[in-house]
Amino acid sequence: MLQRILAVLVSVLLLTGCGTTPTPTPTATPPAETKAGAAEPATKAWPRQVRDADNKMVEIKEKPQRIHTLSLGYDEITMRLVGPERFAAIGSVATSPVFSNIIPQANKVAVKVGRKSEDVIAAKPDLVLASPFANKDLVRQLKDTGLTVVVSNLQDSVDGHAENIRFLAHMFGEEEQGEALIREVETRLQRIHAVVGKKPAAEQPRVIRLTDKLNTGGKDTSIDGIIRRAGGINVAAEAGIERWQQITLEKVVELKPDVILVADGSSDKQGFGKELLSHPSLQSVPAVRNQRVYSLPDRFLSTLSHWNVRGVEELAKLLWPEDFKDVTFADFQ
User: What percentage of the chain has pLDDT greater than the value 90?
Assistant: First the structure.
């Protein structure tokens, strides 16, 4: 026994005395409690492994050159990180003027597809990226063909952009591009916070986002983050509403919003704001009484990508017109 202990001590002394330390086995080093997926340590080596939404490790054998995503939000992030040349195909919604922020870039991708498995398979992607909202049967069909498919926990929140971007950048081998985008997002949000963060809580406008079906976004939605970051109070979240729920006109009256936010997306929504302003049941609502029913582009409000920072910027201008009257915000490039 003594000989065995001495042998171990000699081995340790030889390693430390020669200035050499044992090389630890690499372990996963994602941001703590990341919900966007877990990546192996920052490295330029391939293959790489990432942890998907089902807590399973997926191997990406080589730096992907033919990417396809099943999410417009992922399309928008991916386009910024790798450009159109590394898309095997892009979803047709990426060319929609209502929902997409990347129409010029999307038009450079030759293959446009819907959400049919045969169309995606025919594009021969070497990596398919899906959000938790993707059709589960479609994801299963793509996996059954042997395609590399990663289902990631896409963060439905302005506060989750860094996680989303960093995770995609790791899978694409574009860490530097990812960190540059994260810095831009944080800089733009900080520019808004430098103004609205000083506003007393009593002065913050009470805001509600309404669709033409009277759906509203509560806690844990992108619109909740947009409203908060723009210096408003999301009255739906304040009332305990979670995710997206349909409410009644009576509920709108009860919540007493100072500002009602609608989207100017499709033609059937363009008159929705005017309808609210003229509705007899809403005349006691502060937003209606004071003519503070505003519309913003749907593509800024509904997207699950860094582009809803543009929604934060434009909403801040509406909520605090005197503070931002001489400020112009540019689109992401």
Answer: 74
Quick: pLDDT tens for 261-301: 998 764 455 588 999 999 999 999 999 999 999 999 999 99
Between CA 42 and CA 137 the distance in angstroms is 33
Q: Tell me how far apart the alpha carbons of residues 126 and 66 are, in angstroms, rounded to a whole number.
A: 5
This prediction has a pTM of: 0.84
Sheet (strand 48-51) strand order: 38-39, 48-51, 57-60
- Which is nearest to 226 in space by CA: 291, 317, 333? 317
pLDDT of the residue at 22: 39
pLDDT band of residue 28 (cuts 50, 70, 90) is very low
Residue with tokens 């919540």: 255
Query: What is the 3-state secondary structure of the chain?
Result: CHHHHHHHHHHHHHHHHCCCCCCCCCCCCCCCCCCCCEECCCCCCCCEEEECCCCCEEEECCCCCCEEECCHHHHHHHHHHHCHHHECCEEHHHHCCCCCCCHHHHCCCCCEECCCHHHHHHCCCCEEEECCCCCHHHHHHHHHCCCCEEECCCCCCHHHHHHHHHHHHHHHCCHHHHHHHHHHHHHHHHHHHHHHCCCCHHHCCEEEECCCCCEEECECCHHHHHHHHCCCEEHHHHCCCECEEECCHHHHHHHCCCEEEEECCCHHHCCHHHHHHHCHHHCCCHHHHCCCEEEECHHHHCCCCCCHHHHHHHHHHHHCHHHHCCCCCCCCC
* Separation CA 162–CA 19 (nearest Å): 38
Burial class of residue 24, CB neighbours in 10 A (0-12, 13-18, 19+) = exposed
